[in-house]
Structure formats: C-alpha cells, structure tokens
Amino acid sequence: MNDPLFKNEQPIPDTNPDKNQHIETPLPPIDKKRNTLDAVMDEAGLSPARKEAVDLWLSYKQERKQPYKPVGLKVLLNKWAKVSDSEFEAAVTNSISNNYSGIFAVKSGGVLHQAQPSRSEPKRKYIDPDDPFGFKKKAAAQDG
Question: Is 58 part of any domain?
Fold first, then answer.
C-alpha cells in the first residue's frame, strides 16, 4: 500500500484505544466424553458381548443415516437391560437381517424364521380355468 491512488491520500489514524486489549473470558472445561455414545456405554457397564452387539447396531444405524444420540442410546440400553446377552445379540442380528429400523425380539424360542403367510391353505400351483378362484373346490369340501 505504499503506492497511494491519489497523491494527497493520507492514512487514517487509528483512534481505537482498546485496539490491543482483548478480554478473554475463560470457557468452562468441556467434558468431551460426557455426551458421547462411548460414555453412555461406559456408564451402562456393558459386558463385552453386549457392547459388541451395541456397536454392531450403531454401525448399522449409521449406515442407514439414522445415528443415535446419547439420550436415545440410554433409553435403548435401559429397555434391553433385563434381557440376556445372547437374546439381545439374537435380536440385533434378526433386526439387521430383516432391515428393521428398531431392535425387535426374536419370536418362537430364539429360532430365526421368515414370516409365513397367514393363509390356512397353501397356494395352489394349478389354476383350473373353469374355477379360477377355487369356489367349486371349497363348496365340494363343505358338502361332503
């Protein structure tokens, strides 16, 4: 700026008396661990098996772009606290494999199964052109 645009241009004097005086207010120390998911899991005192299942669930939710916040994780851990580690692991595996957005307990004694149709009779493989809906077959079964 040694080359002024105008010949008579003079620098403007700085009249601010507090120019070099910065007031620094100390910030309270930030406990970074307090609000993290790891802190929540540490406070819960999870077993290694349950911690691994929770980590798997959190990774799955992260992939779905539905991350947990600390409060949500606390509620989740409290909800599943009374269930054994193996039941919790099975529920997490079942929920991920079925692409659920929440953790759901496995039904029928812990055996993973696919949902079955609620029909009482199996699907027909052959459709009779004279009776495409099976009305005659049902009527004959009721009569005799």
Answer: yes
